[in-house]
UniProtKB/TrEMBL annotation:
Residues covered by region (RNA gate): 297-311
Comp. bias (Gly residues): 144-162
Family membership: Belongs to the eIF-3 subunit D family.
Pfam family, one: eIF-3_zeta
Name this polypeptide is given: Eukaryotic translation initiation factor 3 subunit D
Compartments, as annotated in UniProt: Cytoplasm
InterPro entries hit by this protein: eIF3d (IPR007783)
HAMAP family: eIF3d
Gene: CNB01420
GO cellular component: eukaryotic 43S preinitiation complex; eukaryotic 48S preinitiation complex; eukaryotic translation initiation factor 3 complex
C-alpha cells in the first residue's frame, strides 16, 4: 500500500539575501543563533551535520593516517565568512589552568589623605622626609598612587621583550562614593577632536612680590655644578574658591568661570594624563568655580608618569625610587630651585601686597611670586558672552620688569633604577642635551605640557628649566644643579605637539556640560587605568568628612 507524501513547508527569504529571514523563521528556531558561512562553501558542506572530530580517528585509520577535512579547510583562502566569529559561534571553552586567573588587590588605599596647603596654607622648601600624613605647610607624600600589579595571563614567555610583564593597576585619586551620581563619561579620543581659538587675554590685576633672576645660573654645567640649597620661602597654592581676589571678580560678575593656572593646565592637557586626578566643579548661580580638592594630587609633581616603565608603586622604608617618594622629591626640588635662582639683592617689584600672606601667622620670608589675574574669552560668536578668569603665577623677571619668566626643575634620581633608563646627566648633559630633553619629553609628557601651558596662561616670556641630579643616587636628601636651559612657552608647547586650541576646546566642553547642571557640587575624575574622564554629582559635604579626620590626626 502506497503512503501519501506531503511536501514540507518552504520558508522563502523574500529579500533574496543568504540565510534565514527574520520575518519567516519558525518559532521553534527563533532563539537559535545563526552560524554564518561563505558563499564559496559547497551546499553539501553548509548542510553537513557530521562531526569531523569524531570521524577523524576512524577516517585516519581507514585512510592510513589521512584525516577528514572540515568546512574551514575546504574554504578558499582569502574568503571571509559572513558574520562574525564563525569558528567559535557555538563554542565554549572552560580553562581550568591556574594561569587564566588574575589576582588584583581589592584593598585600595583611600585617596585624599594628605594636607598640602590647599586652602591658603603655605608650603616651604623643607628637607624631604619619608612619606607621612603631613600637616600645615610641610610637604606630605601623595597618596592614592599605590596598589598591587595585576598578574597577567599566561606564562612561558618570560623575558621575551616584556611581553608577559604584569600590567599595573593604579588607584583613583579619590574614592568614588556610593552615593555619587555619574553624569558623563568622555573618552580621550573624543577630547582630541575638540578645538577653540582664544584671543589675547585681558590683564586685570597683579599681586605679590617679584624679584630678578640670577643669570649666573645660566653658566652652570656638569663641570661647574652647584649644590641645591634648602631655603625657607613661603609659597601659596590656594584653591580657586578660597581666593579673595577671585571672590571680588565673581561678585562683580566679571566672568562666568574661575580657575587657577595649575588646575586649568591639567584640564587642557587631559589626553596626556596617565595617573588619576580630580577637579571639583562648584556651580553657584550662573557661575562655575574649578577647585582642587583638599589633599588631592595637585600638591605634588609626577615623575616619569608617561614612561613605558614608570617607577614602581611599591613603597618602603628603603625604597627611594618609588612613585610616591619621587613625587615628594620632585616637589621639594622645584620649590627650592625656584627660590635659589633669585638674585637676593635685586629690586623687588610689588604692585599689590600678597593676598594670602599674613605677617601675624608667617615668620619666613615670601618667595618671589607674582599672581596675575587674566581674563580669557571663550565665546564662539559675537552674540555669546562667556569668559574665564584665571589666577596665574610667574616666578621672576629678567632684565626689565615686564620680561616675566617661570622657573621649573627636572630631576634625575638613578639612571639604573626601574623606570629611569636614561643617559647619565653627569656624563652626557653638556654633549647630548637634545637627547636628554627628548627623553624627558617622552617620559614626562604630561608634566612638561602642563608647565608649558601654565607659562602660556601667565603670559611669561620664557620658561627656565633646571636640571637637578642627586649628589649620590642612593641619597634623596642632597642634590646638585648640573645645568639650565631657557624655552619660549609657545615654542616649547609646539615642540611637544601640544595644541592650545585643543586645550581650550576641552575647557569649553567641560564648562558647557557643568553649566547645564543645576547648582551644586560636582567632581571630574580621570580614570586611573583607562583614557576616560567621568563627571559625578556629589553631595555638598562629600569631602568634609576627610577634612575632619585630618584635623583629628
Amino acid at each position: 500500500m502506497a503512503l501519501d507524501f506531503v511536501l514540507p513547508v518552504i520558508h522563502d527569504n523574500e529579500d533574496g539575501s543568504w540565510g534565514p529571514s527574520t520575518s519567516t523563521i519558525p518559532a521553534q528556531f527563533k532563539d537559535i543563533p545563526y552560524a554564518p558561512f561563505s558563499k564559496s562553501d559547497k551546499i553539501t558542506r553548509i548542510a553537513d551535520w557530521h562531526d569531523p572530530a569524531a570521524e577523524g580517528a576512524a577516517s585516519s585509520n581507514a585512510r592510513g593516517g589521512r584525516q577528514a577535512f572540515s568546512v574551514s579547510a575546504n574554504r578558499r583562502p582569502g574568503r571571509e565568512a559572513y558574520g562574525a566569529s564563525e569558528v567559535n559561534a557555538f563554542g565554549y571553552v572552560h580553562d581550568e589552568d591556574e594561569k587564566s586567573f588574575s589576582l588584583v588587590d581589592s584593598s585600595s588605599r583611600a585617596a585624599g589623605r594628605g594636607r598640602g596647603g590647599a586652602r591658603g596654607r603655605a608650603t616651604r622648601g623643607v628637607q624631604p622626609a619619608r612619606p607621612t600624613a603631613g600637616r600645615g605647610g610641610r610637604l606630605a607624600a601623595p597618596t592614592g598612587r599605590g596598589g598591587f600589579a595585576q598578574r597577567g595571563r599566561g606564562g612561558g614567555r618570560g623575558g621575551y621583550g616584556g611581553y608577559d610583564k604584569p600590567q599595573r593597576t593604579r588607584d583613583s585619586s579619590v574614592t568614588i562614593g556610593a552615593d555619587w551620581q555619574q553624569l558623563e563619561e568622555i573618552e580621550f579620543s573624543r577630547l582630541n577632536k575638540l578645538n577653540l581659538g582664544v584671543d589675547t587675554p585681558e590683564e586685570l590685576s597683579s599681586y605679590g612680590t617679584l624679584q630678578a633672576y640670577d643669570r649666573t645660573f645660566d653658566r652652570i654645567n656638569t663641570r661647574n655644578e652647584k649644590p641645591l640649597e634648602i631655603l625657607d620661602r613661603v609659597r601659596y597654592n590656594t584653591t580657586t574658591s578660597d581666593d579673595p581676589i577671585i571672590h571680588q571678580y565673581a561678585d562683580k560678575k566679571e566672568a562666568q568661570i574661575f580657575a587657577t593656572d595649575s588646575i586649568l593646565a591639567v584640564l587642557m592637557c587631559t589626553p596626556r594624563s596617565v595617573n588619576s586626578w580630580d577637579i571639583v566643579l562648584d556651580r553657584r548661580g550662573d557661575q562655575l568655580f574649578l577647585d582642587k580638592r583638599e589633599g588631592g594630587p595637585f600638591e605634588f609633581l609626577t615623575v616619569n608618569e608617561n614612561a613605558a616603565d614608570p617607577p614602581p608603586d611599591a613603597d618602603g622604608d628603603n625604597n627611594l625610587n618609588s612613585a610616591s617618594s619621587l613625587s615628594l622629591e620632585a616637589t621639594y626640588i622645584n620649590q627650592n630651585f625656584s627660590s635659589q635662582v633669585i638674585e637676593a639683592k635685586s629690586k623687588a617689584y610689588t604692585p599689590r601686597p600678597n593676598p594670602f600672606y599674613s605677617p601675624e601667622e608667617e615668620s619666613e620670608p615670601l618667595a618671589s611670586t607674582l599672581y596675575r589675574y587674566r581674563k580669557f574669552d571663550l565665546s564662539v560668536n559675537e552674540e555669546e558672552d562667556l569668559n574665564i578668569i584665571v589666577r596665574t603665577e610667574v616666578d621672576a623677571y629678567v632684565g626689565k620688569r615686564d620680561h616675566l619668566i617661570t622657573v621649573k626643575a627636572l630631576n634625575e634620581y638613578d639612571s639604573r633604577a626601574q623606570g629611569a633608563k636614561v643617559l647619565d646627566w653627569r656624563k652626557n648633559l653638556d654633549t647630548q642635551k637634545g637627547a636628554i630633553v627628548a627623553n624627558e619629553m617622552k617620559n614626562n609628557s604630561a608634566k612638561l605640557a602642563r608647565w608649558a601651558v601654565q607659562s602660556y596662561l601667565a603670559g611669561a616670556e620664557a620658561m627656565k628649566m633646571g636640571y637637578i641630579s642627586r649628589a649620590n643616587p642612593r641619597d634623596a636628601q642632597r642634590h646638585v644643579i648640573v645645568g639650565t636651559q631657557s624655552y619660549k612657552p609657545v615654542e616649547f608647547a609646539r615642540q611637544m605637539n601640544v595644541s592650545l586650541a585643543n586645550g581650550w576646546g576641552i575647557v569649553r566642553t567641560i564648562a558647557d556640560i557643568a553649566l547645564k547642571q543645576p547648582e551644586g557640587k560636582y567632581i571630574l575624575v580621570k580614570d586611573p587605568n583607562h583614557p576616560i574622564i567621568r563627571l559625578y554629582k556629589v553631595p555638598e559635604d562629600a569631602f568634609e568628612a576627610i577634612d575632619e579626620e585630618e584635623e583629628e590626626e
